# Entry
Amino acid sequence: MVRYFTDFAADPYYNMAFDEWMFERVLDGHGSFYLRLYGWARPAITFGFNQVYERAVDCSRLGNLPVIRRVTGGRALLHDSSELTYSLAVKLVGGNAAPAGSPRELSVRITDMLMNFLSSLGIECDYVRQSSAQNARREFFHKAPCFESLARHEIVSHQRKIIASAQRRVYDTLFQHGSIKIGGLAAHPAIPLRFPERQYPTELEPISEQTFGHMEHQFALAFERWLNGRTQPSDVAECERRDVLRRLQYVRKNCLARRDIFKQK
# Structure
């Protein structure tokens, strides 16, 4: 059974802390498949595990915007209340809920599931067959905003990226999360745009709680069709909540660090 968590609009530090908690739970054998869909109570920037902070973000233009290093790869991006974000932690072997196949095959199947989810919302989309050549350039990796690069299996709508995903694998556990820009892509001066001719807004319409409720239902259905099984809407037990809150304190104190989530207790 897939444990399915949802948060309509949560604090940025909490969102990253909960994702790390899911990853560690599955890695430690407390379940084989955790799934989550969530929103953002306020804007924040996250950047990739291997990025150099001072090169990924223009620190002089941040203001009071939170910045948090992810435990996954990828590049810097702005999250805001107009987007959905998904995350999943999967035991690749030995878990009853885990889909069969290699990590690469799993990535393809996740992409198919996400495209089915977007189709259920009436959004036409396709996926990238081949990463762009500039992705391999070191300078581009550190400085390019996430939504201005195209990597294999990422999803586009009307030739613009609509979902950006990032992964991390540790032993037999895969963690993936991604930003779903259903309402469009907003800009922030702390992440300089590489293509200034594209007119990105600075604010977008937030997702309402009612709309989020519809989307979380469609998201669960897309996963159930993919797995040919059921997702189980899950509450967080009191002992689990204490672990999440401990993780939250750790993330707040070490938000820019490369956090080793498997040694922090």
Q: What stands out?
A: The longest strand covers residues 160-170. The two ends are 27 Å apart (CA to CA).
